[in-house]
Design goal:
binds zinc ion, Sufe protein. Chain: A, alpha+beta, four-stranded mixed sheet
């Protein structure tokens, strides 16, 4: 049973890696940020339209990275699009807790199950940064951080 679940999760990750959702530059973003994970070489550029109410009206990404970083960015953008910056932060906290093994995730959050496919990285500390790069980069975009994000 555990193996079936593991295979299913891997398939979802491979699918997002092959066909990443929300991939490509936005035409008129009002926020952008760049992220880099030197440990793995993952690079990410994030585009966002944050409206006046603090809602993420649109979000996309481009980059070069491993399957986990690409799948994580793909899943993340699908989930936070349409949510407020505060809501995105709640997802980030819960996701971060899950992949670092410090929390269990929060299934009361809509679509949190989609993030569970990345929960397995908790067993591989070097991959945690691949899985969280997109989230750190989104936070930098929301905070209007000028500095590129690095996981180191
Ligand atoms: Zn990586």
């Amino acid at each position: 049973m555990m193996d079936d679940l593991r295979n299913l999760y891997q398939e979802v990750i491979f699918d997002h890696n092959r066909n990443p959702r929300n991939y490509g530059a936005l035409e008129n973003p009002n926020r952008t940020a760049q992220g880099y994970n030197p440990l793995c070489g993952d690079q990410l550029k994030l585009y966002m339209v944050l409206d006046d109410d603090g809602r993420i009206a649109d979000v996309s990404f481009e980059g070069n990275g491993c399957a986990i970083s690409t799948a994580s960015a793909s899943i993340m953008t699908s989930i936070i699009k349409g949510k407020t910056a505060e809501e995105a932060q709640i997802y980030f906290d819960s996701f971060h807790g899950m992949v670092t093994g410090e929390g269990d995730g929060d299934d009361s959050l809509e679509d949190f199950d989609k993030l569970r496919v990345l929960g397995g990285v908790a067993e591989y500390p070097s991959r945690v940064k691949c899985a969280t790069l997109a989230w750190h980069t989104v936070r930098a975009a929301i905070d209007e951080s000028e500095e590129p994000v690095t996981t180191e």
